[in-house]
Each structure stands twice: as C-alpha cells, then as structure tokens.
Design a protein that fits this description.
The protein is α/β, with parallel strands linked by helices and about 130 residues long. About 50% of the residues lie in helices and about 20% in strands.
Amino acid sequence: MLGLLIADDDAASRIRLATLLMEEGYDVITTDSAADAIEGVLKNVAKVVILGGKLGGLSASELLPVLKKCKSDLKVIIASEESPLPVLRRLRKEGIFYFLMKPVSGEDREEVRQVVQCAFENLRNHANPSTM
C-alpha cells in the first residue's frame, strides 16, 4: 500500500492534492491536525507526507523535526505558497525530501506527481538495497 498523508490547514489545497494523487493510485489520507499527522506517522500509515506551510497553528518548520523524530526515514514534501530562504535552509537541514510550490497549473500538478513517485521509489530502494 502506498500510504500518503497530506497535512495542511488549507482545505482547498488538501482536496486538490488528494484528488490528483488518488487518481494516480495512491492511498491518500488527509488531515488539518498536527496530532493526526503525528499519529499517522507513528502508526506507520504514512510512508510519505506532504506538509503544508501551516498545520494546527504550527509551521512546517516547527512540525518537521517532530515528524522526523517519529520516523527518521520518513519522506516529507513541503508544499507552500512561499518560504524565505533562511526557512528553506532550515527545512533542508531538518531533512525534507523536497520543497514545492502549492500546485496551481498543469505543470505544477505534473511536478507533484513526479516528486511523490520519486519519494516512494526512494523508500523502496532503501528498503531493498540489493535491487539498486
């Protein structure tokens, strides 16, 4: 099962991403709760997380270290409207898999598809190093 969690305060963004990725065959769970996001990671429901800029009053940069402590090999994709360069540097240092702008156009949606596919392939390759 390709467990994908979309966690974001922005309901329209969650729905847009969930629809796109369900069409691609992913098992998608959505939440606007930081507690639910943490629970999904702890229960190993989510293999990849798309984290919006804000969630339950916390910024992505505040929640990311918590998620990574729950599961160090978790692939976290940050989807935000914008982030200042110092914040992006901190997110990279904390171990994000990718930063993308929230999808608006067809090209944006293609980028989301490719990034999520790459995240799952990365997980599979690390789970089965002999297949590399």
